[in-house]
Each structure stands twice: as C-alpha cells, then as structure tokens.
Amino acid sequence: MATSGHEGQYQSFADKGDDPMHLHLPLLEIVATVPRLFINATKRLSSQTIQEGTVGGRTMQTVGIIGLGYVGLPTAIGFHDAGFEVWGVDVSQRTVDMVIAGENPTGDPDVDDIVPAPGTERWHITTSTAEAVPHCDVVLVTVPTPITHDLKPDLSYVEAAGRAVFEAIPKGSNTIVVLESTVYPGVTAQTWMPIVDELGLVIGEDLEIAYCPERFNPGDPAHGVRQVARVIGCTNPEVGEVLVQLYSQLTSEDVRYVGKLEVAEAAKVIENVQRDINIALVNELARIFPALNVDVEEVLSAAATKWNFHRYTPGVGVGGHCIPVDPYYMIQRAADVGVPAGLITAARAVNRSMPSHVAQVIVDILWKAGLSAESTEVLFLGWSYKAEVGDPRETPAEPLAEALQQRGIQVSVYDPHIDPETFPESVKVIEDLTKAEGHDLAVLVTAHKACVELDWVSLAKTMPIPRIYDGRRVLDLDALSEQGWSCFAVGRPFS
After folding, report:
1. Do 148 and 221 lie in a common domain?
2. Distance of CA 104 to the CA centre of its chain
3. Quick one: 203 and 306 in the same domain?
4. Higher pLDDT pick, 107 / 487
5. Region 163-181: what's the mean pLDDT?
6. CA–CA dist 453, 435 (Å, integer)
7. What is the pLDDT of residue 55?
8. 268 lies in some domain
9. DSSP codes of every residue in 63-129
10. Which of 111, 279, 350, 462 could join 104 in a cystine, given CB atoms 3.0 to 4.6 angstroms apart?
11. Mean model confidence pLDDT for the chain
C-alpha cells in the first residue's frame, strides 16, 4: 500500500477521500463565495477574536498540519485563509519545495491556483516537525492509514507522526493534538497514549488529545474542507468545545462535539463501510442481471422512482485510499472483540473481485468476436481511482490490467491526469489518442471528462472494429452505437 514518491515516517499524500463524480469548479471560486467568518452567528467568532488569538478562552493563533497531501494541504490553506498562522509539515522534500514555491504537489486540480505564493505572511512550510510544533497551539495530524499485504490495519504512520509531534511539544504548553486520519474505534488512545506516557508528558498540562476525522472529498469542490460537517471526539469536553469553535472557522457546515474519542472514530469508519456495502450490492446485481438477460441500469433506474431507494452505480471496481481500506479497520476491530463482521467482509470481497469479473467479461466479448486473447490489445481510458484526480492509489485499473495480462492481452492506457512515469512498466502509455492504433477494445475505467467527452469518431478510426466497454455506466451508448461502435458495459447483457 505504499505510495511511490514518498519517504520517511509518513507519506505526503496523507489524506483520504474517494467518491463518485461531482461537478468540478475551481476551488478558489468556492472559497471566495464562503464568508471567512460568521457563517453562523451562534458558532463563528469575529475576526477581532481571531486577531486577539483566543478561541474558547484559549490562545489559538497558530495551527500546525502534519502531512500536506490531498486533505492536509487544503486544510492548511483553509486555516490560513481564515486568518491563522499556519505551519505545514511534510517529510517529502519534493512536496515541501513545491508548496514553498506556490505549486500544488497533490494532483488535485482544485488546489492548483490557491497555494499561497512564496513569501506569504503567516505561511510556514518545512520538513521538520521539531521546528514547527513549538510554534503551534493546535496540531492536526493527517497521515495515511493503509492496510498491509495481508489486509490488516497499518498504524505505523499514525504512530510515527504522533511520536514526532509529542517529542517536539514544549512542557507546560498544553498543545492540542488532533488526529484526522481514518481509524477504528480506540486507535487514537491505544496508539498515542503509550508514547505520551513514555515521554513523561501529562494530559491537561503538556497536551490534550482529540479526534476529528477528515471528510473532504478530493476533486470535488462542493465537498472541500470548507464545505463539510465535522465531528469531534475528546475526553475533555472543554477541549472538545474549543475545537468546535476552531473548526467552525474552517467550514461553513455543522461542527459538533460528539463525546469520547471512540464515537468520532467509529462515525468516520462506518461512513465508508456503509458506502462499500451499498456499492457491493449494485456490483453483485451487475453480475446477476446480465445472466437473466436484463440490463442492471434499467433495473436501477426503475427502482429509483421510489422515494426511499438509494441509487448507486456499478463499476469495474472500488478504488482510492478510503473505501477499499477502511472496512478492514472495522473488520479487525470487530475480530478483536470477538464479534463477526460477516456483512462487511462479504461486501469487501464482492468489490475486491470486480476487476477479475470484468476481465473475464472482456475476454468473453473478445472471444465471441473471434479474437484470441494472445493477439488482442485493449485500451484503458483512465487509470486513476476517480474522475478528475491524478491519484492511482488502490485504483481498480491495476488489478484489471493484471487480470487481462495474465490471459495474454496487451494493455495500453490513456490518462491525462497521471504522470506517464508513474504507470506500471507492463502497460503501454498513450499520451495522444490520435496515435492509439490497432486496439481491439476500449475500456472506460475512469470517468475523466477527457475520457468521456473525447472525439469518439476519431478514436473509432484508429481501431479495426470500434468496440467500447463502459466500466462506469456514464456513456451514451445509444449515440455511440449510431456512430458505429459495438457497445458493452458493466451489468449489461451481450450476445
């Protein structure tokens, strides 16, 4: 689960969030339309209060962000925009150098134009946690919580980042340290408190510990760090309320204290468990209905006419650093206390197997067209795990490509959002679709605008027989059929 290009104790792409497509407007436009303060008069403090440096009776002038990835960097920018002094830390020298230069290292296009320019006041970026933390009144930790190769939670980044922060906290400062990474209930205390005790720090004197899960969705400006509700867990209710006021400077949505750490931790992890289960249902239906000679999309559209039907769309697989990962955290915690998590486990198995299922369907399509696997070449349209984001972590494209290659099929890839140097060596990178010659089938893997709205007439001319497999059910297949394409799709029967 390690991400290339990262080094040290924790990764620069330290944030989470994966979701289906949304409208993609420049984040600067969104930020500009949201009042910086006083969104809600009962919760927002005045700009004078910020300038005086108090929130809930505590000094709150400086915010530290550990991890400048998809969530960490926009969070740092958001607090800076709200008037706070900000210290951003990342162990990747490349990431730090880019942010200092006013450049965006995350691959999220919505952040491209809002990174503070070099020399901006109240904006400090460094690779050194020890340098940053002594300046901070509150420190937010946004580091990865991946899984190991055997599908177990990997808390090494949380532990390493926590240790680095705690070692740098000045005695008597009562610095608030907030974990934002997705974890199972109990992780914050179980992972951090032994380090606190080891270092001889005292809760309530040297530091306070809290949990506030990130909910921001990269590539989706309608649900950025300034537009999502937040929940806060903390043993000390007074600190919880302080953090409610602090985060209320960041977001226009509801911020609430929910009690102990475990409540907030559990709330975050089950958000993604629920989505994984719902997606698994439609993916399983996408397997069943074609065998009944029924298009799953026609069924879902009909069912969606009922007021309480929740509409999901099947796909080639579930990707990203959230939905494919977080259920394993809940599964592990359930196992720890001796409670079965059969539904969560089954849903994860369905979604994890979708690339293999789709690969077999593609092989069947090619075979019925009279093509042998060893002599065919397939073109992937998209590689990243979600639309309009250049992030390949946990993308279903990779296991799908591997499953096809194991059958002898050659795979080419077109994805304008991803650096050509980051693709696996086993795939052929296509940077210009006009030069995509000789493919027997195109597969829409990621619903990038560049992949959905491409010149289909021109692409058809590069193929012996134009065939398309819609792995996201977003294409107008009737229109493509009229243009001469043979159209296939996940959950759609074919003969």
Report:
1. yes
2. 16
3. no
4. 487
5. 97
6. 17
7. 56
8. no
9. EEEE--STTHHHHHHHHHHTT-EEEEE-S-HHHHHHHHTT---S--GGGTTTSPPTT-TTEEEES-H
10. 111
11. 87
Q: At 46, is the pLDDT very low, low, confident or very high (cuts 50, 70, 90)?
A: very low
> Cα dist. 41→38, 61, 71, 456 in Å?
5, 21, 27, 52
Q: 235 and 107: one domain? A: yes
Is the residue at 270 inside a domain? no
Q: What is the mean pLDDT of residues 428-457?
A: 95
- Three state DSSP letters for 406-428: HCCCEEEEECCCCCHHHCCCCCE
User: Which of 259, 274, 306 lies at the terminal end of a domain, its last residue?
Assistant: 259
- How far, in Å, CA of 57 to CA of 33, rounded? 29
In the structure encoding, which two tokens stand for residue 467, read together? 């065939």
pLDDT of residue 56: 54
Amino acid at 388: E
Q: Strands of 486-489's sheet, edge to edge?
A: 428-429, 410-414, 377-381, 441-444, 467-470, 486-489
d(CA 132, CA 138): 11
The Cα 252–Cα 34 span in angstroms is 7
Measured CA to CA, the distance from residue 401 to residue 46 in angstroms comes to 54
Per-residue model confidence as pLDDT tens digits over 214-235: 887 776 677 778 888 999 999 9
137: left (phi over 0), alpha (psi -120 to 50) or beta: alpha
Does the pLDDT value for residue 315 go beyond 80?
Answer: yes
Q: Count structural domains, the chain.
A: 2
Q: Provide the pLDDT confidence category of residue 45 given band limits of 50, 70 and 90.
A: very low
Closest to 206 in 3D by CA, of 153, 113, 139: 139
Q: Both tokens of residue 97?
A: 């150098």
| Same-domain pairing of 166 and 310 | no
Residue 211 carries which side chain, given as an amino acid letter? Y
Question: What backbone torsions phi and psi does residue 493 show, to the nearest 5 degrees?
Answer: -70, 155
Could you tell me if 250 and 344 lie in one domain?
A: no
Length of the chain: 495
Helix, strand counts (H, E) of the chain: 16, 16
Write out the residue range of the structural domain in which residue 164 sits.
Answer: 27-259
Q: State residue 219's pLDDT score.
A: 67
When mean pLDDT is compared across 12-16, 89-93, 341-345, 351-355, the lowest value belongs to 12-16
Whole-number pLDDT of residue 453: 96
Is 212 part of the annotated catalytic residue set? no
**Predicted model pTM:** 0.83
In a domain, 9, yes or no: no
SS3 content of the chain, % helix, strand, coil (to 5): 40, 15, 45
The DSSP letter of residue 12 is: S
Flag whether 266 is in a domain.
no
Residue of 136, 322, 451, 487 marked catalytic:
322
**Pairing outcome for strands 230-234 and 207-211:** antiparallel
Residue 381: phi and psi, rounded to 5, are -100, 100
Please indicate, yes or no, whether residues 115 and 181 belong to a single structural domain of this protein: yes
